[in-house]
Amino acid sequence: MKLNTNAVLWVLAFGAYALFLAWLSWLYPWSSDEFLDFSPSLSSYFDAYLNITPRAGSLLAIAARGPGARAFVFLNPLVQSAAAVLIFRLVFQRFPDFKTTPDLPPFLLICFLCVFAVSMPNQTLFWVNGACHYSWLMAAFMFFLVVLSALYEGKALFKDGRRARVLMFFFGAFIGMLNENLAPVGFGAALLFALLFILQKRKLPVWFYFMFCGLCAGLALMAASPAYKSRLALTPIMAAAAASPIRVKIFINLAYINRAMAANLALAPLSALILALAAADKFKAIIKLREFWLGLFFLFSGFLAAAALFYVPFAPARAFYPPTAFWVIGFLFTLKTFGRLYNFKAFKYAFYLSVFAFVLWAHAFVAPYISLYAQSARRAEIIKTAFKTPARPVYLPAYYVLQGPSENLTILFNDAALDRQTLSTYYKLDIKKGFAFEGKRPRLVRNETPVV
């Protein structure tokens, strides 16, 4: 049997990407969210819906915490790889050709951007709870967009029927409950899609209407959750920010959007500039390109998804993962538009730049994960030793984080993420803090008190 060299290259590419994701997922420590006592059941999700967050990610997070870290290490690379394949399908209107290598550079470029050009990858890709609430939901949203894209191309992924209608209703409800910025964009995309079909006098399958009804029901359920009000009442500053005038919220949100664009490697303004210059040069040609309009759509969707968070006071940086993911897709469509207009191999040279950036950043990006894993292993050994002693008060060293290649690519993880009360409840030990570190480089503040 003759060995297909091209297939081997694809297997190596997928394997390298999957191993990279699995390795960092394994190195990243569990936080308080993973130690919470949520058994994998629907009752736990209803509790989360009423008191914590109504997002569909809560259901995934509760399910993922059940089997433990090893299951997440196995599943996470599969979900992230599937998301990269779906993005490729969306941009190129087909799946990669695994029998040849021309599709390999753009696919690897997508993999690079999905890690290094999204907001807070440590919290949205490698942290169990964060991945379930952001990148895993984005994979579901990519499938939603691929379903719409295939339907527009006249290549429906499945036939209409009772089973399809029921499944699509629940899938639509899931999309409607993704999170606060993905769900509104999904609603807008489905509505625009339906209007486009009506204007073109094309017939939509019945399952689409079931999906749209499910999406509306999901949005309504998420908006009706009492969890938002209870979370805003957690601290006085959150309550005060929620009650502030809209102009103040918008001003705060603009600062967060600016930070998200920096985390996105400025791909959004770069894409907008390229499309504007190309339109000024070849306006009649560019407006005929599907890629041009889709590039604008995803750039606008990114800003819409970011602006949708203006009502959330002090939204964490990880909440801007969906906008940065949209800007990544918008940038890919921009490259495709530029390549078609000027007969330029844009993806090829962008891939070369991504390889250079990866080589430049790889060590600084990975080192903090290795350091955190070593610290976590040390804390586990201290706890293990404490169980062998008659008395069980134990002093744990505080976490410190090494600087990454940029602010966005630096791990946001501190000792508060594993608070003393949670650990004490989980390990049945009287856990106290032993020492802390200051400055960019860790410096011992006071000596560690030995385990009693």
Verbal overview:
This protein is mostly helical and about 450 residues long. Among the domains are: about 235-345; about 370-435, no CATH class. It contains 21 helices and two strands. It has a two-stranded parallel ribbon. It is globular and about 80 Å long. The termini are far apart.
What Rg is obtained from the alpha carbons, in whole angstroms?
23 Å
Percent helix, as a range, is 55-70%
How many β-strand stretches? 2
Low-confidence stretches: 435-452
Number of helical stretches of at least 4 residues: 21
What are the secondary-structure elements, in order, as H or E? Answer: HHHHHHHHHHHHHHHHHHHHEHE
**How would you sum up the major sheet?**
2 strands, parallel
Helices and strands: which structural class?
mainly alpha
**How far do the termini sit from each other?**
65 Å
Strand order of the largest sheet: 1-2
Shape: globular
Average per-residue pLDDT, rounded, comes to 83
Strand content: under 5%
Task: Give a quick precis of the structure.
With 452 residues, the chain is mainly α.
Key phrases:
2% strand; globular; 67% helix; 2 strands; mainly alpha; 452 residues; 21 helices; two-stranded parallel sheet
